[in-house]
Amino acid sequence: MSVIAESPPRGAWLGGVARIALPVLLALVVGGLILLALEKNPLEYYAFVVERGLLSWAGLQESITRSAPLLLIAAGLIVAFRAGIWNLGVDGQFLLSAVAAAALAPALAPVLPDWLTLTLSCLLAFAIGALWSVVPALLKARFGINEIITSLMMSFLGISFANVLVKLVFRDPGTTVPQTLTLPVEDRLARLFGSTVNCGVIIAVLAVLLVHLMMTRTAFGLKLQVVGANPRAAVHAGLPVGRLTVATFALSAGLAGLAGAVEVVGVLGTIRADWNPAYGLLVVPLVFLARFNGPAVIAFVFCFAVLQIGGESAARRLGVPHFYVLVLVGLLLLFLAVVEYLDHRRRASRGA
Amino acid sequence: MTEVRQQVMNDSSASAVPAISLTGITKRFPGVLANDAISLDLNAGEIHVLLGENGAGKSTLIAILAGMQQPDSGEIRVRGRPVRIGSPRESLALGIGTVFQHVLLVPSLTVLENLMLGRSWWRPLDRRATLARFQELSRTLGVTIDPDAPVGRLGLGQQQQVEIMRALWRGEGVLILDEPTSMLTPQGVEDLGRVMRRLASQGIAVIFITHKLREAYAFGDRISVLRLGRKVGELPPERLRAMDEAAATHEVVRLMFGTVEGHRGDSETLLARGRHRRKGRVDPATPPVLTLRNVSTHAASGECGLTDVSLELRPGEVLGIAGIDGNGQKHLAEVLAGQRPASAGRIEIDGRDATREDVGQRREHGLSYITDERLGEGTVGPFSVATNLVLKEIGQPPYWRHGITLWQRINELARRTIRQHDVRTPSERTPIAKLSGGNVQKVLLARELGHATRIAVFNKPTYGLDLQNIRLARRRIAEGAAAGLATLLISTELDELLELSDRIAVMYRGRIAGIVENPVAETGSDIELTLGRLMTGAAA
Description:
The complex is a heterodimer. By secondary structure, chain A is mostly helical. Chain A is built from 14 helices and no strands. The longest helix of chain A has 28 residues, at 241-268. By secondary structure, chain B is α/β, with parallel strands linked by helices. Chain B is built from 20 helices and 22 strands. Chain B has a 6-stranded mixed β-sheet, sandwiched between helices. In chain B, strands 16-19-20-13-21-22 form a 6-stranded mixed β-sheet, with helices on both faces. The longest helix of chain B has 16 residues, at 186-201. The chains are: A mainly alpha, B alpha/beta.
């Protein structure tokens, strides 16, 4: 997959749309065949998902709320992927930061004004996420050790460590199931226009757009893109590749951490032991599908959120297991790769 | 296999039918007519030279013969029979072997192991049969190579001989050599000439592709000239034998360019005869602007590091660095640019210690490095021409303000540069990888040779360029030196070094084997011979 250069190529619109629409269509069709094999009506399932995830008021609110952490993670992934750094440890960064926010916010809420509590919680979460990326970042910068492996390993450690913290350190003594102290609903992120949607989604959309602007309009973003597109050219041009690697990792992981904070101080208010939504690896294919483009990511993440929320309802109603959504995502990735490969072959054979 | 070989030998020696006969070969790529109705006979027992500059259609023609491309129209006959060469495998089965410009052997495997590669996966490796064939071909080539030596330990000339063996492995019919002399020493070129002559005398049709006229005249029985995809002329053996070198050269230049006078520069570049036209005006009393004192570098496996390199470079001077590729030139360039740390020694700019300065700091002091890997590290391929022009200034005014990119200014600069330096590109926003090598080099030269540059390090500045761009690049180097630029010119082209340098240092295994004044002080000594001996370590 080629990284998009500093400005989008002109005139490639139709091809671009086809390369995105085709895998989606193929995934839906093949996914439908699987549903048929399970003796479910695919049309009924898809209609139900759209109805519940998008068209009903409650479902729509839920889908938008769900988009917030996904978008923040996506913003972090865009930064990393465009710089050619494969930060696959977002789940650990997300969860550990969420626990940090869940521990701090209820402690500060009684003494500080809400806005300060929320800001400090978000900052702490960002810092914890960034901190958790330091090991893979330094290993990569100093010794060239593949960050896919190290960030994944740190992710497992982070997830387990977060559980340990919930069960042993920040446990709310008043509950039987281990969980952290609960942030009262009135102290959480403000809700929008009397809906159940909190302003986390605004933070998230802003984050994606800011990241997009940073990548296309600033020196820092261009440096990251040079490192990502041709690391040897970065060395040749005298860019501090090591420092940029650490900065990229910190920013990427920090945004994943922010996603955790938004989920806690916006929606949940507390974290139960063994809670792990594993959003990170779900967002990766979406970011690829959007070709690391900010605005496109917003659209894809929203569609995915609809699919997830609708899929959860469908699981209860139609008896289609909720992980069928994952099957669809898997198919999507597969066809994305196939379409990419065929396109590549076609170009090569044209001798272009 | 034996059967094929037998057949090939019988056919080629039996009759006057050409080994390969091409009629009206046309190949079109989007926007380019790479081969335009080329007709060519390749005769057994003849060394047929294909001359032409880059982009003349030589590579496409080879690719068609090697089975990697299909012609759009035209006919290929092998020993009189019309054939379709659908794949490299089929090409080999027809007895057509190709040796490409770059060595395609596995350095860690032995000679025999390399020769055993490429057979069907289910066939067992048969050492004895391979060794027998190896010895047979060694006799054919008239060379001696240790079959159990790792290929990486062999010299480039010997590696090439192994490549030739591999090309002839399936039958001694036709041998295509694509620019085989580009990485050889003068002596290596002589050896190759002997091997080619020997193969031809045994009835093999040898196709020798080059852009050097002298080699064409020295080794060729027949010369065909390609230009812009067309065959523009042919010198058959009878005519060629009747001419002396000057007359043949004159004729070929006429064929290539239509006229000699109009393209004085082209013919000189082509002839490799532009002997030291540049008048050096270096005052030995001026303090050196760049000094290396006993500089060494660490080398990873497979690389050649520097050992104890000391050099001085004065304003207005061109110091040539000769040597066979891979003798430490890359490390020298990188350690000068600041891309690679020196493990020992000292680098001074204007007498100040600059050993620990990074790329940016050295650039501020006026040092520019024009890399030979134009797309590998010099540019970011998918990025626009405009972005690549400011690649080494990201974040600096006037193109950035408070870290915000001022695209408009960058694009303006790019449009100006494109006009000034005649860069052929659809627009300043075209990805630079879409440009031809010559135009990429123009962009790089524009970026690196700004008015603040005082020291320029060129690494193979004309590598892979066509004649016109070779001439342009060489002229820029000469002009730079005339304007006082201290120039370090790393090159594997001897004629380029002889044309431009005031002194030539020869690198061998990471050391400076010797430094020769150009032209040589004492009369009667042959500078090429001296350099060639230094390059192979013979004169150490």
